[in-house]
Amino acid sequence: MPGVVPKYNWTYPAILTIAREEGVAALYKGFVPKVLRLAPGGGVLLLVVEFTLGIFRKGAKRLSPRVDVNLSVSSSSRSPLYLER
């Protein structure tokens, strides 16, 4: 609104104003309800991610053929490391 000076116009002076007028505890007002609201969602997200990764890991093991690569020293090759299948 034109002509009205806002009470809070920057972060640090706002923090000081709130601490001075309402006390330091007012800076943490709402912290517990916020954590209680976010914690279940974070738990569900963790379960979904772990479940999905487990499905992908099982599918990747089943779908990809396993190729064993042996690194051994062979005198017949030019390189000291020879790949055997």
Description:
The protein has one domain (11-84). Strands 1-2 form a two-stranded antiparallel sheet. With 85 residues, the protein is mostly helical. 53% of the residues lie in helices and 7% in strands. It has two helices and two strands.
Please report which band the strand proportion falls in: under 5%, 5-15%, 15-25%, 25-35%, 35-45% or over 45%. Answer: 5-15%
Intertermini distance: 77 Å
Number of domains: 1
- Report the structural category: mainly alpha
Extract low-pLDDT stretches: none
What would a concise description of this structure say?
By secondary structure, the protein is mainly α.
Structure characteristics:
single chain, 85 residues, mainly alpha, two-stranded antiparallel sheet, 2 strands, 53% helix
